[in-house]
Amino acid sequence: MKKAIGVIVWIAALCVCLALADSFFRREEGAKKYDAFFAEEEQLDVLFLGSSRVLDGVSPMELWRDYGITSYNMGNSSECMDATEWVLRIASAHNKPKIAMIDLYYISRSIEDEWHIPYRHLFLDEIRLSPMKIKAVTSTIPKAYWTEFLMPFSLYHGRWEEMLAGTVEPTVDCEPFMMGSELRIGRYPAEDYVRTEEMDTSEQPGTAALRRIVNYCREQGIEPVLMAIPAPISEEEQRIMNGMQLVADELGVPYVNMQADNPVDYAADCYDDVGHLNPDGASKTTAYIGRWLTEQYDLEDKRGSAALSHWDDSLVLYEEFRLANWGHMTME
Amino acid sequence: MLFNSFEFLIFFPVVTLLYFVLPGKVRWIWLLIMSYFFYMNWNAEYALLMLASTAVTFLCSRVIVAAQDKRLRKGTLIAGLVINLGMLGYFKYTGMLLDVFSRVCGFLGLAVQAPKVSILLPVGISFYIFQALSYMIDVYKGKVKPERNFFKYALFVSFFPQLVAGPIERSGRLLKQVAVPHDFDAKRVRDGLLIMMLGFFEKVVIADRACMYVDVIFRAWINASGAQIALATGVFMVQDLCDFAGYSYIAIGAAKVLGIDLMTNFRQPYFAHSVQNFWARWHISLSTWFRDYIYFPMGAGRGSKLRRSFNIMTVYTISGLWHGAALKYVAWGMLNGALQVVETLLPVYKPKHPKLHHVLSVLWTNVLIGVTMLVFRAGSLSTAVKMLIKIPTQWGAPWMNSGFSPMQGICLGVCTAILFAIEYIHEKRKTLTEMTDRLPYAVRMTLYLIAVMAIVIFGVWGPGYSAQAFIYFQF
C-alpha cells in the first residue's frame, strides 16, 4: 500500500513538473496579446478579426478614447479566412461581441499553404485543450502538425537553448494595455502604388469560410461587417478586394473598403515595405472606423462607466507608451 | 512505431496494463497480437513476410525433428536456410547485386546495364530472420526442444520489444519465457522502467543530438577541416553507441516490465582494450550469433594461423554485409576482421606498467574503431578514404560553420560525460539501480523525477523548435 501511494505521489509530482515546464517554456507574446481579452468580463462592442493588416491597423484604445467603444483586436499574422472563422468561434464563446469586423486581405490565400502554420500558435497556444480547440486544429491544420498545437510543449521544450543563450525575440509587439493591437514604429514611404477600380469577381480560396463566418454571426446574433484595411497593395490584390463588394452584396452585409475610400497617406503612414501601417496610419484608420461605426450603429458611449474603469487605466498606459515610442499622439 | 514516438508512449502502457489484467493463460496471445500490431504499424503487408519466415522455419523444424533420415533432415535445414536467406537477399541485396553486375559489365567493356530497382526493405528483416534461423539450426543440432505450438513460436519470432532492432535472442532463452505467464512484480517493473529511461536518455538526448552535428560534417566534409572530421567521427562513435545501445536498453527494459529477460547487447564497448575485445562488447547478440552459427562451424580458432585468419575474415565480411548492402559495409567488415587478424598474429606482450598499458590500449583501440566507424558512416568507400587522408593533411584548416550552436555542443558534451560516468559504473560491475537503491526513498524518487524531466526537456523529440519560423517579419 505504501508503495502504491509512493507511485501515485510520484506520478502526480511528474504531472505538476510537466505543467510547470509547459508554462515556463511557452512564448510570452500570446499572453500579452490575448490575456486582456480573456480577462474582460463586460460584453465587447466590436471584435476585429483578420490578418496583420488588422493587427497593426486598428487601435482599440483609440476607439475607446475617441468614441467610448469597447473592442478587441484579434488580428494575427498570415491569418487566412478558415483560421479567422475559428478565432471568431472560440473568442465569441468567451465574449460575444455586438459587431464582428472581418478583414478580407487574406481571402485570396488558401488554408492548404503551410507557410501560415507557425503564426497560428500565437492564438491557439492560449486556448486550453478542449473539444473546440481540437476541432479548430483538426479543421485548419495539416495532420502532421496536430501534436505541436494540441500539446505545445512538444514544440517549446526545445526553447531552453534560446532562453539560456538570451536570444529570445518577440514575434509581435503587443502589450496587455493595447487590447490586442501592436505599434510598429517606423516610416517606409510606399512607392509605385497604383490605384485601380477594377474587380476580380472569381471565387477566392477563403470565400467559403467567409460565408460560414457570416452565417455563424447571424446564428449568434453578431452583426458581421467586412472590411479592407488600407495598404499600398498590388493591383491584383486590389481587384480582389474590390470584387469582394459583390460577395458582401450577395451576403447582405456591409463592406468597409478602405482601399477604395483611403483614410491614410501611403507616403507617410506605413512602416515597412509591404505596407503595414505605423501608429499614424493606425490612428487614421481607427478614426475612420470609429466614425463609420457611430454612423451605422447605435453604440453606447461607455466612457465614464465604473465597470470599465480598467479601460481608462489601460488608455493611460497606452498613451504613455505611444508617446515614448512614437513621440506624438495623432497626426493632427 | 518507433520507441521514441507518442504512439509507443500510449501503446506500451496499454499493452502492459492489459497483459497483467488478462488471465495468465491468454497473456501470450495478447503479446502475439500486439507484436503483430506493432510491426504492422510500419508496413502491414510486410507482416506477411514475417509470418512466412515464421511458418517456414517452424515447419522445417517440425520436419527435422520428425525425420529419421539424416539426408532429409539436412535437406530440410538447407531448404529452410535457402528460403529465409533468399528472402533476406531479395529485399536487402538485389539493388547492390545489380549495381555490382553493371559495374563488372562496364569494366569488361560489355554494353549491359542492369535495371535500377527500388525495393522497400522490410523493417527488422535482418533481425527476425536471424532469430528464426537460430531456432531452426538449434533444433537441427538438438540443442533445443522444438516448440509444438505454432503461435507460441510466432511470438518468439515477433516479440515486439526486440523485433526491429534486437537483441537477436536465442530460442533457448526467449521461447520458454514468452510462452509462460508472468505476474506483476513491482521491483521488476521499476527496474525495467529505469533501464528504459537510460535507453531514452541515450537515444533521445545524446544520439539524436549528436546526429545534428555528424550529419552536417559528413555531408559537407569537403569544406570541413581535418580536426573537424576527426571530431565528427568521435561524435559519431558516441551517436552510434547511443542510438543502438539506447534502443537495446529500451527493448530490454520493456521486456523486463513484462517479465521477460533479454540478453545484454552492449557492454561498455569503448572501454575495450583491443578490437577483439570491442566485438565481445558491441552488439553482443549479433556477434555471438555469427560466432555460434558461422565461426564455430568453420572451425573457429582451430587449425593453422592462416585458417583462423580466413575464418575471422569470412565472419566479419558477412557481418559487414549484414549491416548494409553496399561495398563500404563489406570494406568495414573486412577492416574489422583484418584488425583482429593482426591482433592474433602479434606476439603476446607483458607490460611493465599494466595499468598504463591498459589505458593506452583502450585509447589506441578507440582510434582504430574510430577509423572503422568513419568508413561505416561515410557516404561511400572512396569518400571514406578521402576523409581519412584529410584528417592529417588538413588538420589545421579553418573550421566550417556546422550550424551546431555552442549551447547544443555544451549540452552534448555534458550528456556524453554523464553517459561515460554511467558506463564506468557498469564497467565496475555495478548497476545504477544498485547504487540508487542505497539512497533514501524520497531522494531516489526525486532523482528519478529529475532524470525524466531532463530527458523530456533536453531530448530531441517533437516537431523541433525553430525560433526563426516564429519571427515576425515573414507575413
Summarize, please:
The complex is a heterodimer of chains A (332) and B (475). Chain A has 332 residues and is of the alpha/beta class.
Which SSEs are present, and which pair or pack?
The complex is a heterodimer of chains A (332) and B (475).
Chain A: H1 2-25, H2 29-39, E1 46-49, H3 52-57, H4 60-67, E2 71-73, H5 81-94, E3 99-103, H6 121-124, H7 131-140, H8 146-150, H9 153-156, H10 160-165, H11 207-220, E4 223-228, H12 235-251, E5 255-257, H13 279-296, H14 309-326
Parallel strand pairs in A: 1-2, 1-3, 3-4, 4-5
Helix pairs in contact in A: 4-13, 4-14, 5-7, 5-11
Chain B: H1 6-21, H2 27-40, H3 46-66, H4 70-107, H5 125-141, H6 150-158, H7 171-179, H8 186-219, H9 226-257, H10 275-279, H11 284-295, H12 305-323, H13 327-345, H14 354-377, H15 381-393, H16 406-427, H17 432-437, H18 441-458, H19 467-470
What does this structure look like?
The complex is a heterodimer of chains A (332) and B (475). By secondary structure, chain A is α/β, with parallel strands linked by helices. Chain A is built from 14 helices and five strands. In chain A, strands 2-1-3-4-5 form a five-stranded parallel beta sheet, with helices on both faces. By secondary structure, chain B is mainly α. Chain B is built from 19 helices and no strands. Chain B has helices at residues 6-21, 27-40, 46-66, 70-107, 125-141, 150-158, 171-179, 186-219, 226-257, 275-279, 284-295, 305-323, 327-345, 354-377, 381-393, 406-427, 432-437, 441-458, 467-470. Chain A binds chain B through residues 3, 6, 10, 13-14, 17-18, 21, 25, 27, 51-52, 77-78, 115, 118-119, 121, 145, 147-148, 153-162, 164-165, 167-173, 274, 276, and chain B through 6, 186, 405-408, 411, 441, 445, 448-449, 452-453, 456-465, 467, 469-472, 474-475.
